[in-house]
Design a protein that fits this description.
Blueprint lengths: L10 H19 L2 H29 L5 H15 L2 H9 L9 H26 L7 H27 L9 H29 L7 H37 L3 H33 L4
Helix pairs in contact: 2-3, 2-5, 2-9, 3-4, 3-6, 5-6, 5-9, 6-7, 7-8, 8-9
Protein backbone atom coordinates (compact mmCIF):
# COMPACT_ATOMS: atom_id res chain seq x y z
CA UNK A 1 0.00 0.00 0.00
CA UNK A 2 1.46 3.32 -1.02
CA UNK A 3 2.26 5.78 1.76
CA UNK A 4 0.11 8.94 1.51
CA UNK A 5 1.81 12.31 1.11
CA UNK A 6 0.93 15.41 3.21
CA UNK A 7 -1.79 16.45 0.73
CA UNK A 8 -3.48 13.06 1.15
CA UNK A 9 -2.36 11.58 -2.16
CA UNK A 10 0.02 8.67 -2.54
CA UNK A 11 3.22 8.82 -4.60
CA UNK A 12 1.60 7.05 -7.56
CA UNK A 13 -1.34 9.47 -7.61
CA UNK A 14 1.04 12.42 -7.28
CA UNK A 15 3.16 11.08 -10.15
CA UNK A 16 0.08 10.68 -12.34
CA UNK A 17 -1.01 14.23 -11.50
CA UNK A 18 2.42 15.63 -12.43
CA UNK A 19 2.51 13.63 -15.66
CA UNK A 20 -1.03 14.76 -16.45
CA UNK A 21 0.03 18.38 -16.06
CA UNK A 22 2.74 17.98 -18.72
CA UNK A 23 0.73 15.98 -21.26
CA UNK A 24 -1.16 19.08 -22.57
CA UNK A 25 2.19 20.87 -22.99
CA UNK A 26 3.58 17.94 -24.96
CA UNK A 27 0.48 18.04 -27.15
CA UNK A 28 1.02 21.77 -27.61
CA UNK A 29 4.66 21.22 -28.58
CA UNK A 30 3.53 18.68 -31.21
CA UNK A 31 1.49 21.28 -33.10
CA UNK A 32 3.05 22.22 -36.42
CA UNK A 33 2.45 25.95 -35.98
CA UNK A 34 4.35 25.95 -32.68
CA UNK A 35 7.46 24.72 -34.50
CA UNK A 36 6.93 27.40 -37.14
CA UNK A 37 6.86 30.08 -34.42
CA UNK A 38 9.93 28.67 -32.65
CA UNK A 39 12.05 28.38 -35.80
CA UNK A 40 11.02 31.87 -36.91
CA UNK A 41 12.13 33.24 -33.54
CA UNK A 42 15.39 31.26 -33.72
CA UNK A 43 16.22 32.63 -37.18
CA UNK A 44 15.77 36.20 -35.96
CA UNK A 45 17.93 35.47 -32.90
CA UNK A 46 20.69 34.39 -35.29
CA UNK A 47 20.37 37.67 -37.19
CA UNK A 48 20.36 39.82 -34.05
CA UNK A 49 22.97 38.04 -31.91
CA UNK A 50 26.22 39.50 -33.25
CA UNK A 51 24.76 43.03 -33.67
CA UNK A 52 23.70 42.70 -30.03
CA UNK A 53 27.28 41.86 -29.01
CA UNK A 54 28.57 44.87 -30.97
CA UNK A 55 26.04 47.18 -29.30
CA UNK A 56 26.90 45.77 -25.85
CA UNK A 57 30.60 46.34 -26.44
CA UNK A 58 30.03 49.86 -27.82
CA UNK A 59 27.66 50.97 -25.07
CA UNK A 60 29.63 49.21 -22.33
CA UNK A 61 32.80 50.95 -23.50
CA UNK A 62 31.19 54.29 -22.62
CA UNK A 63 31.00 53.29 -18.93
CA UNK A 64 33.62 50.61 -18.24
CA UNK A 65 37.16 49.94 -19.33
CA UNK A 66 37.83 47.87 -22.43
CA UNK A 67 39.03 44.87 -20.43
CA UNK A 68 36.01 45.01 -18.10
CA UNK A 69 33.61 44.94 -21.04
CA UNK A 70 35.43 42.03 -22.67
CA UNK A 71 35.53 40.15 -19.35
CA UNK A 72 31.79 40.69 -18.83
CA UNK A 73 30.84 39.34 -22.24
CA UNK A 74 33.39 36.54 -21.89
CA UNK A 75 31.75 35.46 -18.64
CA UNK A 76 28.23 35.72 -20.07
CA UNK A 77 29.16 33.64 -23.13
CA UNK A 78 30.97 31.08 -20.98
CA UNK A 79 27.84 30.83 -18.81
CA UNK A 80 25.57 29.80 -21.68
CA UNK A 81 27.32 28.43 -24.75
CA UNK A 82 29.24 25.16 -25.20
CA UNK A 83 32.98 25.48 -24.83
CA UNK A 84 33.97 25.44 -28.52
CA UNK A 85 31.31 27.93 -29.56
CA UNK A 86 32.01 30.13 -26.56
CA UNK A 87 35.73 30.13 -27.37
CA UNK A 88 34.99 31.09 -30.98
CA UNK A 89 32.77 33.99 -29.92
CA UNK A 90 35.21 35.20 -27.31
CA UNK A 91 38.03 35.23 -29.89
CA UNK A 92 35.88 37.32 -32.22
CA UNK A 93 34.48 39.82 -29.74
CA UNK A 94 34.85 43.33 -31.22
CA UNK A 95 36.90 45.88 -29.36
CA UNK A 96 35.00 48.76 -27.71
CA UNK A 97 34.38 51.49 -30.27
CA UNK A 98 31.97 54.35 -30.96
CA UNK A 99 28.34 53.28 -30.89
CA UNK A 100 27.56 51.45 -34.12
CA UNK A 101 24.25 52.91 -35.30
CA UNK A 102 24.02 50.44 -38.20
CA UNK A 103 24.43 47.55 -35.74
CA UNK A 104 21.73 49.10 -33.57
CA UNK A 105 19.40 49.38 -36.56
CA UNK A 106 20.01 45.75 -37.53
CA UNK A 107 19.53 44.69 -33.89
CA UNK A 108 16.23 46.56 -33.60
CA UNK A 109 14.91 45.17 -36.91
CA UNK A 110 15.88 41.58 -36.08
CA UNK A 111 14.62 41.85 -32.49
CA UNK A 112 11.29 43.13 -33.76
CA UNK A 113 11.24 40.03 -35.95
CA UNK A 114 11.57 37.94 -32.78
CA UNK A 115 8.55 39.57 -31.13
CA UNK A 116 6.27 39.38 -34.17
CA UNK A 117 5.80 35.57 -34.20
CA UNK A 118 5.82 35.62 -30.39
CA UNK A 119 2.82 37.95 -30.33
CA UNK A 120 0.90 35.77 -32.78
CA UNK A 121 1.70 32.68 -30.69
CA UNK A 122 0.70 34.36 -27.41
CA UNK A 123 -2.54 35.66 -28.88
CA UNK A 124 -3.36 32.15 -30.03
CA UNK A 125 -2.55 30.71 -26.60
CA UNK A 126 -4.70 33.25 -24.72
CA UNK A 127 -7.58 33.01 -27.17
CA UNK A 128 -7.12 36.56 -28.49
CA UNK A 129 -8.63 36.54 -31.96
CA UNK A 130 -7.11 39.74 -33.34
CA UNK A 131 -3.39 40.44 -33.76
CA UNK A 132 -1.96 43.93 -33.70
CA UNK A 133 -1.32 45.63 -37.00
CA UNK A 134 2.26 45.45 -38.26
CA UNK A 135 2.94 49.06 -37.25
CA UNK A 136 1.53 48.60 -33.73
CA UNK A 137 3.42 45.35 -33.31
CA UNK A 138 6.66 47.07 -34.29
CA UNK A 139 5.98 49.91 -31.85
CA UNK A 140 5.35 47.52 -28.94
CA UNK A 141 8.34 45.41 -29.97
CA UNK A 142 10.56 48.49 -30.02
CA UNK A 143 9.60 49.33 -26.43
CA UNK A 144 10.21 45.74 -25.33
CA UNK A 145 13.57 45.68 -27.14
CA UNK A 146 14.59 48.79 -25.22
CA UNK A 147 13.35 47.53 -21.83
CA UNK A 148 14.82 44.04 -22.23
CA UNK A 149 18.07 45.48 -23.60
CA UNK A 150 18.45 47.75 -20.57
CA UNK A 151 17.88 44.79 -18.23
CA UNK A 152 20.44 42.66 -20.08
CA UNK A 153 22.98 45.49 -20.03
CA UNK A 154 22.35 45.86 -16.29
CA UNK A 155 23.11 42.16 -15.84
CA UNK A 156 26.29 42.53 -17.90
CA UNK A 157 27.33 45.59 -15.88
CA UNK A 158 27.39 43.39 -12.79
CA UNK A 159 29.69 40.98 -14.61
CA UNK A 160 31.84 43.91 -15.74
CA UNK A 161 32.85 44.81 -12.18
CA UNK A 162 33.84 41.27 -11.26
CA UNK A 163 37.52 40.27 -10.83
CA UNK A 164 39.50 39.23 -13.87
CA UNK A 165 38.48 35.62 -14.70
CA UNK A 166 42.13 34.59 -15.20
CA UNK A 167 44.12 36.48 -12.58
CA UNK A 168 41.48 36.67 -9.86
CA UNK A 169 41.65 34.34 -6.86
CA UNK A 170 39.51 31.20 -7.01
CA UNK A 171 37.34 32.40 -4.11
CA UNK A 172 36.86 35.78 -5.78
CA UNK A 173 35.87 34.14 -9.05
CA UNK A 174 33.41 31.87 -7.26
CA UNK A 175 31.84 34.72 -5.29
CA UNK A 176 31.60 36.98 -8.34
CA UNK A 177 29.99 34.15 -10.33
CA UNK A 178 27.48 33.68 -7.51
CA UNK A 179 26.68 37.40 -7.52
CA UNK A 180 26.27 37.37 -11.30
CA UNK A 181 23.97 34.35 -11.16
CA UNK A 182 21.96 35.95 -8.36
CA UNK A 183 21.36 38.96 -10.61
CA UNK A 184 21.00 37.09 -13.91
CA UNK A 185 18.10 34.91 -12.79
CA UNK A 186 15.89 37.83 -11.61
CA UNK A 187 16.77 39.75 -14.78
CA UNK A 188 15.69 36.75 -16.89
CA UNK A 189 12.44 36.51 -14.91
CA UNK A 190 11.79 40.23 -15.38
CA UNK A 191 12.39 40.01 -19.13
CA UNK A 192 10.00 37.06 -19.35
CA UNK A 193 7.40 38.91 -17.26
CA UNK A 194 7.42 41.94 -19.56
CA UNK A 195 7.15 39.71 -22.64
CA UNK A 196 4.35 37.53 -21.23
CA UNK A 197 2.42 40.48 -19.85
CA UNK A 198 2.69 43.15 -22.54
CA UNK A 199 3.35 41.40 -25.84
CA UNK A 200 -0.08 39.76 -26.33
CA UNK A 201 -2.76 41.99 -27.84
CA UNK A 202 -4.59 41.98 -24.52
CA UNK A 203 -3.67 41.90 -20.85
CA UNK A 204 -3.14 38.41 -19.40
CA UNK A 205 -3.82 38.08 -15.65
CA UNK A 206 -0.93 38.92 -13.36
CA UNK A 207 -0.68 35.80 -11.16
CA UNK A 208 -0.26 33.12 -13.86
CA UNK A 209 2.09 35.39 -15.81
CA UNK A 210 4.37 35.83 -12.78
CA UNK A 211 4.32 32.09 -12.07
CA UNK A 212 5.19 31.30 -15.70
CA UNK A 213 8.00 33.89 -15.75
CA UNK A 214 9.58 32.43 -12.60
CA UNK A 215 9.18 28.82 -13.72
CA UNK A 216 10.53 29.38 -17.23
CA UNK A 217 13.35 31.57 -15.87
CA UNK A 218 14.53 28.68 -13.70
CA UNK A 219 14.17 26.22 -16.59
CA UNK A 220 16.26 28.47 -18.82
CA UNK A 221 18.99 28.47 -16.19
CA UNK A 222 18.82 24.66 -16.22
CA UNK A 223 19.02 24.71 -20.04
CA UNK A 224 22.17 26.86 -19.78
CA UNK A 225 23.84 24.31 -17.53
CA UNK A 226 22.73 21.44 -19.76
CA UNK A 227 24.04 23.15 -22.92
CA UNK A 228 27.44 23.70 -21.32
CA UNK A 229 27.56 20.14 -19.98
CA UNK A 230 26.56 18.45 -23.25
CA UNK A 231 28.25 21.06 -25.43
CA UNK A 232 31.41 19.12 -26.40
CA UNK A 233 29.40 16.09 -27.59
CA UNK A 234 26.97 18.11 -29.72
CA UNK A 235 29.71 20.40 -31.02
CA UNK A 236 31.62 17.40 -32.38
CA UNK A 237 28.47 16.07 -34.02
CA UNK A 238 27.49 19.45 -35.51
CA UNK A 239 31.03 19.91 -36.81
CA UNK A 240 30.69 16.68 -38.77
CA UNK A 241 27.23 17.59 -40.07
CA UNK A 242 27.54 21.35 -40.67
CA UNK A 243 31.27 22.08 -40.93
CA UNK A 244 31.94 25.84 -40.86
CA UNK A 245 28.24 26.50 -40.18
CA UNK A 246 28.19 24.58 -36.91
CA UNK A 247 28.14 27.69 -34.72
CA UNK A 248 25.17 29.10 -36.59
CA UNK A 249 23.42 25.73 -36.27
CA UNK A 250 24.21 25.66 -32.54
CA UNK A 251 22.76 29.13 -32.03
CA UNK A 252 19.60 28.26 -33.97
CA UNK A 253 19.10 24.98 -32.05
CA UNK A 254 19.61 26.63 -28.65
CA UNK A 255 17.29 29.47 -29.65
CA UNK A 256 14.69 26.95 -30.82
CA UNK A 257 14.78 25.12 -27.48
CA UNK A 258 14.59 28.41 -25.60
CA UNK A 259 11.62 29.51 -27.73
CA UNK A 260 9.81 26.24 -27.06
CA UNK A 261 10.25 26.75 -23.31
CA UNK A 262 9.00 30.34 -23.53
CA UNK A 263 5.96 29.25 -25.53
CA UNK A 264 5.33 26.41 -23.08
CA UNK A 265 5.38 28.93 -20.23
CA UNK A 266 2.63 30.95 -21.90
CA UNK A 267 0.65 27.75 -22.49
CA UNK A 268 1.01 26.77 -18.81
CA UNK A 269 -0.14 30.21 -17.68
CA UNK A 270 -3.18 30.29 -19.97
CA UNK A 271 -4.19 26.71 -19.18
CA UNK A 272 -3.83 27.29 -15.44
CA UNK A 273 -5.93 30.44 -15.68
CA UNK A 274 -8.69 28.62 -17.58
CA UNK A 275 -8.70 25.78 -15.05
CA UNK A 276 -8.84 28.27 -12.19
CA UNK A 277 -11.81 30.03 -13.77
CA UNK A 278 -13.56 26.72 -14.42
CA UNK A 279 -13.16 25.71 -10.78
CA UNK A 280 -14.64 29.01 -9.61
CA UNK A 281 -11.37 30.76 -8.73
CA UNK A 282 -10.78 34.46 -9.22
Amino acid sequence: MEKPLPDGRGPVARGRAIAGAFVPTLRYWMQTEVHVYAFSIAANVLLSFFPFLIVCVSVGGLVFSQQAVVNALDFALRDFFPSAMGDFMRRNLPAPQPVEFLSMAILIAASNGIFEPLEVAFNRIWGISKNRSYVRNQAVSLVLVFVCGVLVLFSLSIAAIRPDPVTGLAVERWLSALVYKSAAVPVTVLVLYFIYRYLPNGRPPMAPVVQAAVGVGLLLEALKSLSVWLGPFFDAKLQREYGVFRYSATLILLSFLTSMLVLAGAEWAARGHRLDKASGGS
